[in-house]
Design a protein that fits this description.
Blueprint: H1 4-17, H2 51-56, H3 62-73, H4 75-83, H5 90-93, H6 99-118, E1 129-135, E2 138-144, H7 164-170, H8 181-199, H9 213-234, H10 236-243, H11 246-266, H12 277-285, H13 288-298
Antiparallel strand pairs: 1-2
Signal peptide: 1-25
Protein name: Secreted protein
Keywords: Signal
Length: 312
Amino acid sequence: MSRTRTARVVAVLLALSLGTGTAAAAAPTALPTAAEPYCYEEPWQPRADLSDLKASFNSANWMQTLQAMYKRRWPSGEALAIAQAKDPYWNQFVKKNSFEAFAESMMVAIHEETHMWDLDPSRTRWNTHTAAWIDASRQVTTIPLHGGFPRKEILPLIKDKFSDSMDGIYLRDQTQGNYQLQGVTAELNAGLTGLPAATVVQEYIKGVGASNARDIAATNLRYLLLYLRVAKDRHPTYWAKIKNEPKLRDLVLTQFLRTAYWLDKSAPYTGKLGSVNADKITATNYAPENIAVLEEFTGRKVRVDAQKNCTA
């Protein structure tokens, strides 16, 4: 499916977040910083029964159904839905004509509502600091960004066509290509909620509405890793600034492990939730030069065996 709607939503949020925001009222939970090995995981129950919710679903009770569905299968989705329950933009993303269409629309709906939470001007000041909804127990605010450089500068490092359709939107587009680290982190975080949102209800998905969920996660991790490489090689002053920001280093580490976690959990549904290119992109993400820059930036070793969601 097209990602142009996401681009429009991010543009709207950019306009809002350029202003000076107020600090978030709730104190966020910090990302893990301990030196001991750490694995990213989160609760989910893909076999929890939803038959009663399907039977009672209608266009009037969709939010109640959404929260109940994720309470049973993916509590992080329930928590985000509660936090964003009053957002009027849900209606642009949620399909209400059947339970199957509803479930299929969750990849886009949760992706976009993550943008709405992350980029709300009370939490994000564009290119200065950002926020990230990680899961039900972990939300991080005031993550320093220090501006950056246009993300289109990573294009020469992409030697294949595996992410070509997204490259056209996010890197070659005249506006999107000039977005800096803010754009890179925002799209990855939204992709990492959209993927589990679809994975946990995959048996109800009959169409193509979530057919690039895995590609989105893999591609946006690609962009982050390549952005770090370009920062180190071509923008040493900027590299030094961001490498000195513990919150940003911890976010990068968590997003790397989180991507591995959800790509693994969604792997049985390749075809329904992603193309074969998602795994090809992932293979390039684990190239030695990408792992090297990740480990240098975060100060942590990561596992590249079957437990890719863990540090070493």
